[in-house]
What we know:
Elements: E1 2-3, E2 7-8, E3 25-31, E4 34-40, E5 46-51, E6 61-65, E7 72-73, H1 76-88, E8 92-97, H2 110-115, H3 118-131, H4 133-148, H5 150-153, E9 160-165, H6 167-176, E10 188-191, E11 207-212, H7 218-230, E12 235-240, H8 259-271
Amino acid sequence: MMIAEPVQLWEGLAPGSDGWTWEERRLKVPVPAAECEFLLNVVHPTLTPVLPDPAVATGAGVVVCPGGGYFMLAIAHEGFDVARWLADRGVAAFVLKYRVMETPEGQDMTALTQAADPAGLATLLRRMDEFAGIPLADGIAALRCVRDRTAQWGLQSDRVGALGFSAGARLVLDLAAHDDRDVRPAFVGAIYGPSRTGSVPDDAPPLFTAAAADDPLFEGSIEAHAAWRKVGRPAEAHLYNRGGHGFGLLEQGLPSDRWIEQFHAWMMSDVLS
């Protein structure tokens, strides 16, 4: 496995963020049995390749989109940890550091605290809807970057998908339902994503969803699976009794810990076989 240098997705300032001047910073948040690292105030989006040993490479690739409510990125347990896991199994992974909303100095924990209650979560979801075009532009740029470099990275262009968590799941669903077929990934994994509006095309890529019933966003995964099935597109859902929100690759000693094994099995046997 090799982690390559990050690729800048845009020359100069990314479109739509011309006036952004805030400084990117890191935040560590303690959770049971772990400490999660987040990025705040991302202004310059990048894509970091995590490439498998050529001896085990499958020619498949996945753009990995961490979550964080479009105001931060869970860059480790929903980003690089996932990418390393996939690369160890022959799947090239590309961690997308997409742009997020500004968090002013001294307010690092404010949005996390607000999202813990229903009213605050509803406000955050509305803000995400308003901001969604910015991450979507970065997601499109990321997929185009990977497809333009398939020879360099040992990939097959029709085997490049996307995997997202929470807000990142919202992003990959927007990519999968995009009007432009050339933008869509070959397959998508949406892990504990929120509900989204908008229709699903009748040629949308195959979908994998996973979520836990004790997650306040649980219904979003149910709705995404139902929307895909309604238009006759392949969709697989893994619904767990416990796991909460944002588990990524954190070990909790629960069946939800195995979601990534189930995603990998689905990807390699049902989608790319």
